Amino acid sequence: MTRALADWYDAVELWVTQLAFPLQVLLAVVVVLPLCLMVAVVLDRVSERLVGGR
C-alpha cells in the first residue's frame, strides 16, 4: 500500500514538473489554495471547539 502511494506520488510529481511554469502556477492556484483553505477552516473549527468558543 505504501509503495503504491509512493509510486502514484512520484508519477504526479513528474507530471507537474514537466508542465510549463504558468501551468504549474495555475495548478497550484486551482488545487493547492482551495485545499489549504479547507484545512484552515477545519483547524479553525476544531480549535474553536477545544477552546470553548461559540
**H and E string:** HH
Provide the residue-averaged pLDDT. 93
Count of DSSP strands: 0
Number of helices: 2
Structure explained in plain terms:
The protein has helices at residues 2-17, 21-51. It is flat and about 45 Å long. By secondary structure, the chain is mainly α. The protein starts with a helix and ends with a helix. Helix content is 87%, strand content 0%.
Could you provide a short overview of the structure?
The protein has 54 residues and is an all-alpha fold. It has 2 helices and no strands. The chain is flat and about 45 Å long.
Q: How is the secondary structure organized here?
A:
Elements: H1 2-17, H2 21-51
Descriptive keywords:
54 residues, mainly alpha
